[in-house]
Amino acid sequence: MAELLAPAGNIEALDAAIGEGADAVYMGLKSFNARLRSSNFAWNQFEAAVEAVHRQKKKIYVTVNTVIEENETERLYRFLSYLNKVGPDALIVQDFGIVRMVQEFFPNLELHASTQMNIASAAAVNLLSKEGIKRVVLARELNLQEITSIKQNTGSELEVFVHGALCVSESGLCLFSSFLGGKSANRGMCTQACRRYYEAEFPGGAKEKGYYFSPHDLQLIDRLPALIKAGVDSFKIEGRMKSAEYVGSVTAAYRYVLDHWTEDERGAVETGKRMLSTDFARAKTRYWFDGSDASKFLNPNQAGGTGIYLGIIDSVRSGKTFGAENSSEASAADAGTDSVQKFALLKGGSYDPEIGDSIRIHKKDDSGRISYKVQEIQTVPSAHGAAETWISVPPEAGRGDPVYLLQTKSMSKRYKRVLPADLSPYRLQPADERLPILDLTPLKKDSLAFFPEGVYIQVSTLSDMHACLAEHPVRFILELNSDTRRSLIEKKEALPCSKKQVFISLDPFCTPETQSALERDLKSLHEAGFYQWVVNNPAHINMLKSDKDIMIGGPYLYTFNRWAVSWLENQNIDAFIMSHESSRSNLESIFEGPQRSRLMICLFGYPALFRMRFKLPDSYDFSIFNDREGMSFRALSTPDGSFVMPADPFSIIDRVHTLKKQGFSRFLIDMSKTSVRRGDIKAVMRALHKGEALPDTERFNWKDGFYSPMQNREEPRPAKRSTKDTPARDRQSKSSAMPRPSKKTLSGKGKYTKKR
Prior knowledge:
The structure is a single chain. By secondary structure, the protein is of the alpha/beta class. The two termini are about 55 Å apart. The relative contact order is 0.12.
C-alpha cells in the first residue's frame, strides 16, 4: 500500500502526524536542511523520536537536502556519522557530495533524492538508482501522464507531493532569494521572493502592483486514486513550517481517502475535501494536473494568497486594559516588555477571530509576515457608544497591516505525545571525528585538451554567435532551445565556426516529453558531428553514452564541495562551470593548484533567478518589474518556458587578472537569454581585457558567499551590491582548504589510496 508521508517541523506536528495516521514523517535537525526557519529537532529529541516512531512501526526520514560548502564537509561527515548511529529510515538529500560521502563511509544509510535535485524523467531516476538511491521525490511540475510514464520506465520508488505550498520556479533551480542577499533556497534560507509585492511597468508607461509570481497551494486529494493506480509509492504533504493543527487536519483527510477509496472512490474523495475545508491557506490548484495555463495558479491580485481576510489594522493600543493613557500606538520598547500586550482593532473583514485562532499579519510595506495565535480579546465601548472588539497581536503589527485567518481554535486537537517525557537516556551527538582527505583525480597530460584556456561565450541563437564572432572566443557554448533546434536540426544551418569549437548546453529541466525529444535531438546532433555538451541534469548524463561524447558539468549540477565534484568525476565529467551562487573562497577551497584548470568561472551574465515551466499569462505583458527596495528585474516568456533575470548583470570582469594569478584560466561570458548587440559584447570584452569594472552590475555571492545566520547574526549584509561603487577588496577565507589529517586520502574515483 502507498505510504502517507507527513511533515514534522516540531514536536507538536510530529504528534499530530502520527496521531492522524501518517505512515512516515520527515523532519530536519538544526542544520543541513531546506527549512532552517522551522523549529526542527534537538539531538536528544531526534534520537527519542526515531525510537518512538519505530516502536509504532512507522518510519522517519531526515532532510539533509541542502548544498554543502567545502568548509562544511567535515561537519557534514560528523553529522552523517551521528545519523548512521541513530538509524533513521532514510535521508532526503540534494547534494551529490552527500551521496558520494554516504557511498564511501555509510553504505547502510538509505538515500532518497530530494525534489531539490530536480528529477523529472526516467533517465534521471535510473541514473540515481544505479548510484544506490532507493527513492526519488519527483519535481512538482509534472502531470499524471508524466508521473505514470516515469514509473513505467523505472524500478525505483517514487514520491510525489500532493498538498501544500508550491514554488513558482522549477524545483531546485531558484536563485532569486540567493541573489537578494545570499539567503539561498538551496541552503534552507529562502526569503520567498515569489511571494513579494512587485511593481510592473507595462507598455505605454502604466505601472501596476501585484503578487505576480505567488502561486496557489497544491491540493491533489481528488487525484489520489489515479496516482495510486499509477504506482506512486509515497504521497508527501508539504509543511514543515506549518502548525500542528494544519499537519493534523491535512494528514487526516489524505489518510481517509487512502483508506476508503477502494470502497467508494467518489464518496471518499468528497469526504476528504470536506475535511480540508478548514485549510484557510492560499487558493488551491492541481497545478500541472490541470495543464500549463498559468492563470489557473497565479493571481497577482491575491494579497500574498494566504488565509481568510479579516481586515486591516485600523488602530493599535498597548496595555493590559484600555485606559485613556493607552490610546496611542505602543512604542517599540513597550511592545517588547512582558507586562505590555499589544491590541489591534480590525476594519473591513467579515469574521471576528476568537481566542486560540491562528492569524497571519502581512506588513503593509511587504517587508514580512508574522503568524500569531490570538491570546486575548477585549470588547469595549467606542467613543460613539458601539462595542469594539480588540484582539491581541504581536509587537511587530502596525496600523495599515492586512490580517488573515489561518486556522480556527476549533481545528485544535490534543494528540498523544510521541516522545517520552524523560529524554535523559538519549545522549548521542555528533562526535569530534576527522574526515579523511579526498583528493580529486590527478590530471593527466592532455586530459583537458577539449577544454582549452581562454574566454568562452555562451549564446542562445546562431545569430548571436555571428554577433560575437569578432571577439574570437576559444569556444562557443550554444543553448539547445526551440530556436537553435530549428536552426541545427531542421534547417541544418551552417555554423560560423567549426563544430569542434562548440559545446551544446542542455536545459536543466528534463521531463518525460523532454527526454523523448532530447533523445531524438541527440541522435540527429551526433549524426551532424556534435559531441561536446554542457550537462545540467542527471538525465543528460544517462543519455550521453557515446564514447565520443565529452561532458562539462554545467552550473545546475551544483558542485559546492569536492565530494560533489568527485561524484560527477565518477560519471565521466572532468570539467565544470561554476554555479552563480558560489563564491571565490569556496571555489579556491574545492579546486587547489592544478585542479583549477578544470573550472570555468563565469565573469559576466544575466543569471535566471526564476526558471518556470510555463508561459506567463497574457496579462503579464510587462518586461521590467521592481521590488520595494528599487531593484529591477526582467521577465522573459518563451516557447521553452519563462525566466526572470536581474536588470543589471552579474559581473566580476574586473577580477580576471587576480583570478589568473590564482591559477584559474577558463572564463565565461554568458550572453544567453539576451539579444546580443555587437557594441555590447565589444564593451564587455574591452573591460575584460583591461580588467576594468563595468558600471551598473551586481556581484551576486562572489565576494560574500552564502548568507550565514551564525556569521551574520547581528546585521545581514545589504541586498544590493553593485560595482557602481568602488568594489571592496575580496575577503580572504579563514579556511581556504580542508584540514589535512595524516591518516589516509581518498581518490576522486572512489578508492582509498595511501598517502605518501
